[in-house]
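ok so i was messing around last nite and threw this chain in just to see what happens. nothing serious, just curious
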Amino acid sequence: MCLSQSELTRYNRQILIKGWGIEGQKKLKASKVAVVGLGGLGCLSSLYLAAAGAGSLTLIDREESSLSDLNRQILFTQVDLGQLKAEAAKKRLEALNPEIKVKAVIGEVTEETASGIIGDVDVVVDGLDNWQTRFVVNDYCVEKNIPFVHAGVSEFYGQLTTIVPGKGPCLRCIFPKEPPKVDVIPVFGATPALLASLQVMEAIKLITGIGRPLVRRMLFMDGEEMTIEAAEIERNPNCGVCSTQRTV
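result:
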């Protein structure tokens, strides 16, 4: 896996980071990342993953862009209204960084489709706005031993954790009961922007081996009070999804 001269120039500032270097950038170029959902979280996370040089991005969404999305879904503009989000996002990311591969998948992740839609990737990034699909993705990632970077947002608030099967709790451990469904989630655009940026940090740390991922910890952000706190979280030994996995 070699880096072209244009890649060396494009990624120069991050290659200079201690512990990153050429080898870290090569790992990133060889990586495969799936972003499930292209809402406020997924738009920002896919944008910064593309900018950083994640070699292969899979963008998964089944919806079309609408006017009420534009306060937070910054991959899209007025001219994209009515267009499939995954296809519009693919064009924007390829225009930003032609050095990477971007695949648009139009579909919904279910128990039956997860394997075919997500496939064999190194990291899955949560860009979803509903818990039913989040749990499906969580279960698939645990089964396939794929790290899953979860985030959720509402109004000025957000939460973040990184699930690495066998090393910490899965989403079912943390939320044994599905949270109540909200038809329309109120959200200020900067909230998913912040959480998505942190998701990208987590994904890139997992790929490059830099730093300490947010495993066995949940980060809580309150934008109204401007506080960020982290709490320790543990695996549920009776979890129906991950309890049979060997701890590593």
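not much to say yet. The first strand starts at residue 32 and ends at 36.
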